[in-house]
Each structure stands twice: as C-alpha cells, then as structure tokens.
C-alpha cells in the first residue's frame, strides 16, 4: 500500500478541481457532486480560455484566407490535428479526420467504407454492449448493401465472450466494430487481442474510444486497429468536435462521405475531383474553435502525471465498487474484472429514474436509463440502471456523498 499512497500524493486532486469552475457551485442547496462524466466531462479554465481567446483574437475561416487572421486560425487548427496525432500516436497528422464526435466518425466509416466494400453474404460484427451509435449506422448500411450485422455475445458478468467471438470470426466477416470501454457497464474490452484475431481472418477493426480516451494512454502503432475514434467532450474539451483516426491506405481508398467546399480539388459539371486525405472527408467550415479547445484540453491532459492520475482514478473506482458491494439492496450491473470509470447499478424495488431525480435534489448528478445501449440492458435483464461515472477530478468524498444520498433516497422511497 505504501507505493500507492506515495503515487496518490503526487496527484493533487484538489488543485485540479480548482481549475474546473463548474465544480464550485451548489445544486439545490448542496455542493455539486458531478458523477455523469460518461455523458460529458467538465472543462478546465485552460480550455474555456483557449476558446474565448480564439473568438476574441483569431477568429477566421481556415485554409481560404489571404490575411493574417486566417493564417493564425489555420495554424491553430492544423496544430490541433498534430495534438490529436500525438495523443493517439498516429503515424501522421493526415490520418486524423475532424468530425463532430464519435457518432459522426462511425457513420463516416460505415457509409464510406461500408457502401464501397460490403456485399450480400458479408458480415459486420459488433458487440452486444455497443452504444447505439456503433449499431445503428451498421444496420443502415447493411440494409443497403445486403450484408448482415451480427452481435458478439456478452457474458453474465458483462464481458465479451471471446470463445463466441472465435466461433464467429470466419472469412464472411469483413469488419469488426467494437467499444474500448462500455459506457453502460465500464467493461474494458481486450481490444488488442480482438484486433489481432480479426486481422487473422482479413477483417478490418474500428474501436470506439469515447469512454477510453480520458482514462488510458492510447497507441495506434501498438494496437494496430484500422480506425479509432473519440469525442472531445469526453476528454475535458468542447462538444461538437471529435476525431477519427484511420490508416492512410484505407482512407485514401474510401470515397467521400459528404460533399461540399474544402473536400474538392476541382469542380465542373463534367467531373469533380477530390482533395487529398484528410480534407477529402472535411466538407464545409469546420468546428475551428472546437479543434482549438480540444488542443488545449490535450495539452492540459498531457501536463498531468498520467501514472498518478490512473492510480487515483482506479483507487476511487475500487472504493466505489467496495461501497456498492456492501450496500444493502444495491445490485451492480456488470461485474467485469477490467473496468474503468463507471458504476452501473439498480436499487431493489425502485425505478432508476426516481433514484436519479432524488439524487439530483441532493446535488448528486448521475445518469439513469439505458445509456443508449438497449441491447446490453436486455441481455442483463434490466430496463435501465443508475450510472455514476467518474473522471480524474472525482474523489472518495464524492463516492461517500453518493452513498449518503442513496441512504436518503431509500428513506424516501421505502
């Protein structure tokens, strides 16, 4: 325990909390306990200031202008792409495509790669724990192409059934799209292993990193996935900005997803030619301020002692799991050995929505419902859960506040 103690000392959570202005407020007369980080994370001053400064000093459209502001905006925008490349250890910043978030990224790959490559008899594997954003786009594209979406089964513990996956992986499988960390359960999937197995049968793999990016170090060279995606707002950055990483050869072969300015080289009514990657996939005026804000978030995140941060997060989550196991009438949904950031549970005899409403009255923010993951709810036999989800600024005190608030919920409901 001594080593862990000393690591925790080097992560000053109070100093970090002080950089997040939103956390200092009261909700319904109680200090805010923000435990809805799976839905979105809060933003530090560094990010808020970067966005404000961009609009105050540098605002201009990118790649088009013949003037100083446009040069400045373009430089900041492309430096942000380099920041994402560094975060993911991508081979080139040209392999980073701006999207509005993970949902748009999945749609881009499903429609661009999928419509060009899938045909009747082909299969796309997605897990039974996927977010709807990694199920529905594949269903739409498979309906158009005659391919089939096949779910990878999940065990009672909320873990991927790797034996079942092996049984599904054959030459019919052209694509596997898998979540890195389940937003509904917190399960951490063995993505490196899944990627290696899928590649053996010639399938491509996309990893949905929305819930992983704020908790782990990511390395595209080590993972060898074909596509990886995340949303800026889950990484202490702004909403409406996200990134898709793809291997360059795949991106070059894929047709455009949407048409417009910037993604073209020449336009005539006889023939239009397209811009190079990544611009081929970035029509229209991008979310420039969002990219600048995300770059600021990445710079801020890179300034943290990452090992100490991960130890702190794990300690808080372990404590929450321990409290949950000892709490009468509470059932944890998802018992994976490897989990991150999420405590998903039901209270006997109560509806999750009622629990969430009563927690909010005490200043505790959680999410309730199916978490855009209805198939895993059905699989585990619940209509929904109460989800407390954690970020690096959460503390054991936040966990204590959650369980103290649950005591009052029980008094009220029973």
Question: What can be said about the biggest beta sheet?
Answer: 7 strands, mixed
Shape: globular
Q: Which sequence of strands runs across the widest sheet?
A: 4-10-9-8-7-5-6
Mean pLDDT: 96
For the termini, the CA-CA separation is 40 Å
Radius of gyration: 22 Å
Please count the beta strands (DSSP E, at least 2 residues each).
Answer: 17
Percentage of β-strand residues: 15-25%
Oligomeric category = single chain
What is the count of helical runs? 15
The helix-and-strand class reads: alpha/beta
Structure description:
48% of the residues are buried. The radius of gyration is 22 Å and the shape is globular. The strands form 5 sheets. It has a 7-stranded mixed beta sheet with strand order 4-10-9-8-7-5-6, sandwiched between helices. A 4-stranded antiparallel beta sheet has the order 13-14-17-16. The chain contains 15 helices and 17 strands. The longest helix is centred in the first third of the chain and has 21 residues. Helix 3 packs antiparallel against helix 11, helix 4 packs across helix 11 and helix 12 packs parallel to helix 15. Strand 7, helix 8 and strand 8 form a beta-alpha-beta unit. Helices cover 41% and strands 16% of the residues. It is an alpha/beta fold and 414 residues long. The mean pLDDT is 96.
């Amino acid at each position: 325990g001594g080593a862990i103690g000393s690591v925790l000392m080097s992560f000053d959570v109070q100093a970090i909390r002080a950089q997040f202005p939103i956390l200092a407020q009261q909700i319904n007369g109680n200090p805010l306990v923000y435990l809805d980080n799976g839905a979105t994370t809060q933003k530090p001053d560094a990010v808020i200031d970067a966005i404000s400064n961009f609009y105050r000093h540098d605002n201009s459209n990118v790649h088009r202008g013949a003037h100083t502001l446009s040069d400045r905006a373009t430089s900041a925008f492309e430096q942000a792409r380099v920041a994402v490349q560094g975060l993911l250890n991508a081979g080139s910043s040209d392999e980073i495509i701006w999207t509005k978030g993970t949902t748009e990224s999945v749609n881009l790959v499903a429609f661009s790669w999928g419509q060009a490559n899938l045909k009747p008899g082909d299969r796309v594997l997605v897990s039974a724990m996927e977010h709807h954003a990694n199920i529905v786009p594949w269903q739409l594209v498979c309906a158009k192409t005659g391919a089939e979406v096949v779910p990878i089964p999940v065990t009672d513990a909320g873990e991927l059934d790797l034996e079942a996956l092996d049984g599904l992986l054959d030459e019919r499988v052209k694509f596997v799209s898998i979540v890195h960390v389940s937003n509904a359960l917190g399960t951490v999937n063995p993505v490196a292993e899944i990627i290696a197995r899928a590649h053996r049968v010639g399938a491509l793999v996309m990893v949905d990193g929305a819930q992983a990016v704020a908790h782990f170090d990511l390395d595209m060279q080590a993972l060898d996935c074909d596509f990886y995606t995340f949303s800026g707002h889950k990484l202490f950055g702004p909403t409406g900005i996200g990134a898709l990483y793809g291997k360059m050869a795949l991106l070059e072969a894929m047709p455009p997803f949407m048409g417009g300015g910037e993604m073209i080289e020449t336009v005539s009514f006889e023939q239009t030619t397209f811009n190079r990657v990544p611009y081929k996939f970035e029509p229209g005026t991008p979310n420039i301020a969002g990219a600048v804000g995300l770059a600021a978030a990445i710079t801020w995140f890179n300034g943290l002692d990452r090992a100490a941060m991960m130890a702190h997060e794990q300690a808080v989550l372990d404590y929450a799991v321990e409290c949950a196991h000892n709490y009468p009438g509470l059932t944890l949904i998802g018992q994976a050995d490897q989990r991150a950031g999420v405590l998903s549970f039901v209270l006997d005899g109560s509806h999750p929505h009622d629990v969430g409403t009563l927690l909010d009255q005490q200043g505790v923010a959680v999410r309730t419902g199916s978490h855009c993951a209805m198939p895993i709810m059905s699989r585990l036999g619940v209509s929904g859960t109460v989800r407390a989800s954690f970020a690096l600024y959460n503390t054991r005190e936040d966990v204590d506040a959650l369980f103290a608030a649950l005591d009052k919920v029980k008094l009220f409901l029973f």
